[in-house]
Each structure stands twice: as C-alpha cells, then as structure tokens.
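REVIEWER CHECKLIST
Item 1: Sequence provided? yes
Item 2: Single chain? yes
Item 3: Sequence as submitted:
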Amino acid sequence: MIDPMLSNAANLPHSMDTFIAIAVGNTRTRVGVLQGTECVKAQSLSSDQSGDIASFVAALFDEFEFGSDEPVVLMSTVSQEDADSIEDEIKSKFGWSIYRLGRDIEIPIRHTLTESGEKSVGQDRLLCAIGAFDVVKQACVVVDLGTAITIDFVDGEGVYHGGAIMPGVSTMLESMHTSTSHLPELKYRKLDPSSFEPGKQTDDAMILGVAAAAGGAVRYLAERYAQFYEGYPQIIATGGDMGLLEDDELIEAFVPDLQLHGIRVACKMIIDNENEQDDQDND
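Item 4: Structure as written out by the authors:
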C-alpha cells in the first residue's frame, strides 16, 4: 500500500473559510464557491472556454465575501492543457494566484495502485474518493457519471483501491451514432421507472441499452468489490449524469459536486496534519 506524505501546509493559503474550487474535466469544468463544508453555488462550463470560466470566477468573487483583495482559488484537472489555459486567463485578467492539486499541493490519499497506476490515475477519481469517504466514513463504491463513468472502491480505512472506467451514457450514444450507418443521434433521456417493457423502437432501444449498461455495471462492480472486501460497501453517486441512477435503490447517497468537496477535504487533511505535527513538536 502506498502511503504518501501529506503536503506541507505552507503551500496553502492561511484562510480557507471561503474559496473557489475549479475541477477541470475532459469536456466540462465545474466551478464553485465553498463556505465551510457547503458548496453554496456552482456551475458547469466548457473546459475549452477559458475566458468564460475566468469571467465566472470573477463573478463569484464579486458575489461572495472572501475577506481579502483576491479569492483563494484551487484547481484540479484531468486536462493539463485546459487547466493551463484557464490559469493563464485568470492570471492575465485579474492577477490572481491559482493553487493546483498535483503541482502545488499533493493529493493526500493512501492507495494500492501500481507505480504506473499512480502516475496515470485522474485527479477527479482521487478527489471523489476523498470526498466520498469523508461523507460516509466507511467502505464505499464511488460512482461518477460524466463523459466517462468511473466506479471506484475505497475501503473502511479510506484507502483507495482503484476501480473501473467505462464510457458515459452520452459517449455511448454518440459512439453508436458515429460508428454505424443508421442509428440516430440522440441525447439521453430518463426512462419511465414504472415501465419494464423492452424498447419498441430504435431510439427507445438505444436509451434502454445505455441505461442498462451503466446501471448494470454499478451492480456488477459493487458485487465484485464486496467479494474482494468481504463486506458490502455503501454506494455513493455523483457527476452530471447521476440522475440516471436516482430510482436505483442500490444507491445510498447522491452528492452533487463531490469532487469540489474532495478538494476541500484534501486541503483540510493537509492543514490538520501540519497542525498535529506542530503540536507534537511543541510537546
């Protein structure tokens, strides 16, 4: 098991009561304000629209009280190119500093990944794992439904064991349309939970297929992880498409903006660890 040392809290700003968190995804970026333990306002924007993201960050600074001349801004990313563009845009327009997870601040999570896995795992997966364990305080399956769907396992000690990655529902629908001659272009729509009929026409069959793929994967992997762990973990869902699972009794918690909360929890862990070390040094 890999147990990384927590980052030095000196890399973090002194006040974290209110801050802006930016989670840069493959296609969408989530930007929100966190006050205490709550995400009080958040919005999703296209990851390649750095100007729009910078403008929204500025609007949040104008709307909320940060207690200083500039906001604390923390950023995680799975796309370094988009993150660089967003950081450059914010710095050039407003002169504000950006604290980036993985560059300025290590992500404090124990894990059992291989060396290659540690280098390639997405920050979104690690931060959602940290956020989920903080919510349930026990072993859990973390389901993040977006462009891709990730279904990961965290044990009862908060150790991240990795998981599975599959296409998201929109990605599956797009792939069927672009890879075939006659399947239509569709956007996902919610199924009628009271109906158990097969799809009676092509579009219904496609929607039913991607819903079954996503929901079935969650059930299959939850059983697999339970056998691995020899105990049944809670299942927590997040992400832009988490509504897909809202009628699934297997899901025990839905947490919007779990990654943003993971950023908050990661920073708190680092600061708490530093304070604990200072107390030990003073004893």
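Item 5: Key structural point noted by reviewer: Strands lie at 18-24, 28-35, 38-46, 73-77, 99-100, 140-145, 148-154, 160-167, 234-238, 253-254.
Item 6: Recommendation: ____
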